[in-house]
Amino acid sequence: MSTGKMFISHLCFLSLTSVFPLGRASVPVVINTWPFKDAAAAAWSVLRSGGSALDSVEKGCARCEIEHCDGSVGYGGSPDESGETTLDAMIMNGNTMEVGAVADLRRIKNAIGVARAVMELTEHTLLVGESASVFAENMGFIAEDLTTNNSVNIFLQWLKGNCQPNYRKNVFPDPSKTCGPYKPRTILKQKGRTRQANTRSHDTIGMIALDKDGHVAAGTTTNGLTHKVPGRVGDSPIVGAGAYADSSAGAAAATGDGDVMMRFLPSYLAVELMRAGADPSAACKTAISRIKRHYSEFFGAIICANTTGHYAAACNKAPGLSQFHYMVSNSESDIPLLKTVDCF
């Protein structure tokens, strides 16, 4: 089901959740960013059958990788400047504080699975680039082409548009007129180069789960920004930025302009605020406010849940984003429900 159809089908529910931003306590629970219903259902099916929070997060994120989730997750989306799709993912066990993450992953479709392999089969936390892909292949993951007709078309249209928009600045030749190659030029003025928020390019799913035993886990998976500079890594696979989990406090996951958000570790901050006694709504809002102080129009949102199963979300009001939609699955409804929060 498309995001637009989902929004219409849940319109009445959305009006209620805007008034009551703090979700009632219920354990177990799954919360994920954006209206990715199938991912929420996959994660909830694990918890409903008595499975672990860690398994729930992995299965939910993997579902998004399979379904492409608006083209922002998994293979066949967000080609970089060279036309290649690469993946980032992270998973965190809030019980043991173990983390596994991969970035700039090539050829492997199941990025969240590779991230878990890093956590469970190595003593490392983050593997990147070609070496991460080789590790995955050695661990039995199948090497496949991540390119699709859709990603090729996105790339070709970008080339026809003189490689605009892009994420270059202070370079020569002028990136508004050419595709490069690019060289540094400190005096180049970037007039009219303000990047606008694009809610159709939100570049990640973040998911948090609390199981019946009180164990918390969090994860992310993404194919990054469309037309990114090759090698770019955003907030998604960075611990404390894309997500964070601690079974003694709660969990959080962020989405949006990763290049800005990762500078503030919003997920870590939100969890620490909940540890200090803040409810999830206040924790989420404070984490967003910290970034907003420096980047008033940044594009971003965060979801939070504490150990009692209370949950909330917050978002920055920016061009193209006045409300943020997310999914919640718990025993109260036994099906994923679409929630919303007004941005501030």
TrEMBL record:
The record marks 203-204 as: Cleavage. Its EC number is 3.5.1.26. The keyword Signal applies. It holds the Pfam family Asparaginase_2. One of its GO terms (biological process) is proteolysis. Residues 1-25 form the signal peptide. It comes from the Eukaryota. Substrate binds at residues 232-235, 255-258. It catalyses: N(4)-(beta-N-acetyl-D-glucosaminyl)-L-asparagine + H2O = N-acetyl-beta-D-glucosaminylamine + L-aspartate + H(+). CDD domains: Glycosylasparaginase. GO terms for molecular function: N4-(beta-N-acetylglucosaminyl)-L-asparaginase activity; peptidase activity. GO terms for cellular component: lysosome. Keywords: Autocatalytic cleavage, Hydrolase, Protease, Signal. The active site is at 204 (nucleophile). Belongs to the Ntn-hydrolase family. Cleaves the GlcNAc-Asn bond which joins oligosaccharides to the peptide of asparagine-linked glycoproteins. This is N(4)-(Beta-N-acetylglucosaminyl)-L-asparaginase. The gene is AGA.
